[in-house]
Design goal:
It is built from 12 helices and 12 strands. It folds into 2 domains: about 1-100 and about 285-320, 3-Layer(aba) Sandwich (Rossmann fold), CATH 3.40.50.720; about 100-280, NAD(P)-binding Rossmann-like Domain (Rossmann fold), CATH 3.40.50. It is globular and about 60 Å long. By secondary structure, it is α/β, with parallel strands linked by helices. The strands form 2 sheets. It has a 7-stranded parallel sheet with strand order 8-7-6-9-10-11-12, with helices on both faces. A 5-stranded parallel sheet has the order 2-1-3-4-5, sandwiched between helices. Helix 1 (about 15-25) runs parallel beside helix 12 and helix 5 (about 100-115) packs across helix 7. About 35% of the residues lie in helices and about 15% in strands.
Length: about 325
């Protein structure tokens, strides 16, 4: 079997992941360039049984061009760049590696909280320019951390924050580990509005779906404290950028720290670049250890799915009819 790899990170810090695939009888072929367009992936995909992608767009054209494709595996968690409907219609399994990068993402979320709360970026910039300014900031300790999402990443954030002892309030529209909630003293909110109202640091740890798109909007931002901060290292489209810009400029909220954007790379004319906020280039999952763990999980999943029939590892397996 042949595997096309368009992910720049796959195997970068874990060559053993590639060796594992090759020992299992897979021919691993790198994409022709670091970032491939959907058209370029579509042109390359004939003859391949699996596709390992990173921050690529895998649209309908790729699946229409595929003649042997059985699996698309995301090198990470987010699947919003993959046309799931087209994949399922073609009988192609789609898989990801949830949880493998949770620690890296959670650590960056905590770092963003500390950076924006203590205004580290502003003080560093001012000092380099010759100023000696010390503006009081907000400690995480004793603050209210509002979590939207208590999945792998949300729970890891809670664990990392245990030494700070903040008050925790959380909302998750899905099923939640009630034992974890109880053990960590989390106040479970019945509505998303309560989290917006109470949070000093609002942490987004949700996947992107129709019900979560622009969950941070003019209405919900209007519920927040004027000293509160929005922290997002999940998906950019969780936030209405125009509404956030208005809230920042009118001082409806205290600030924001963002590592994810609706369009990436962040366009040069993005309104977010004009704001006095912390922005980083979607590096939450980019640690050497995390990348190595994800590569290992992806290689193991490809083998398990294509060699041993573990279709339960695919997110769309229940939707694919047996004949496909």
């Amino acid at each position: 079997m042949k595997v096309l790899v368009t992910s720049k990170s796959f195997g970068k810090f874990n060559p053993e992941a590639i060796e594992l695939l090759e020992r299992s009888g897979f021919a691993v072929v790198r994409g022709t360039k670091p970032s491939m367009t959907p058209a370029e992936i579509a042109a390359a995909i004939p003859g391949f049984d699996a596709l390992i992608v990173g921050n690529d767009t895998v649209d309908r054209s790729v699946f229409l061009a595929a003649d042997r494709l059985k699996l698309v595996h995301m090198h990470g968690t987010g699947l919003d760049g993959i046309d799931m409907e087209a994949a399922t219609a073609k009988g192609v399994l789609v898989a990801n590696a949830p949880g493998a990068n949770k620690n890296a993402v959670a650590e960056l979320i905590v770092a963003l909280m500390l950076t924006v709360g203590r205004r580290i970026d502003k003080h560093s910039s001012a000092l380099r320019q010759g100023a000696w300014e010390r503006t009081p900031g907000r400690e995480v300790s004793g603050s209210v951390v509002g979590l939207l999402g208590l999945g792998n990443i949300g729970r890891r954030v809670v664990e990392l924050l245990s030494g700070f002892a903040p008050r925790l309030v959380a909302y998750d529209p899905g099923s939640v580990d009630e034992g974890f909630v109880l053990a960590n003293g989390i106040s479970r909110a019945a509505t998303v509005e309560r989290v917006f109202q109470e949070a000093d640091f609002l942490v987004l740890a949700l996947p992107l779906a129709e019900q979560t798109r622009h969950i941070v909007n003019a209405r919900t931002l209007g519920l927040m404290k004027p000293t509160a901060y929005v922290i997002n290292a999940s998906r950019g489209a969780l936030i209405d950028d125009e509404a956030l810009a208005q809230a920042i400029r009118s001082k409806t909220i205290g600030g924001a720290a963002l590592d994810a954007f609706a369009t990436e790379p962040l366009p040069g004319d993005s309104i977010l670049r004009t704001l006095d906020i912390v922005i980083t280039p979607h590096l939450a999952a980019t640690s050497e250890q995390s990348t190595a763990r994800v590569s290992q999980r992806v290689a193991e999943n490809v083998i398990a799915i294509l060699r041993h029939g573990r279709t339960d590892l695919a997110v769309n397996a229940p939707s694919i009819i047996p004949e496909a």
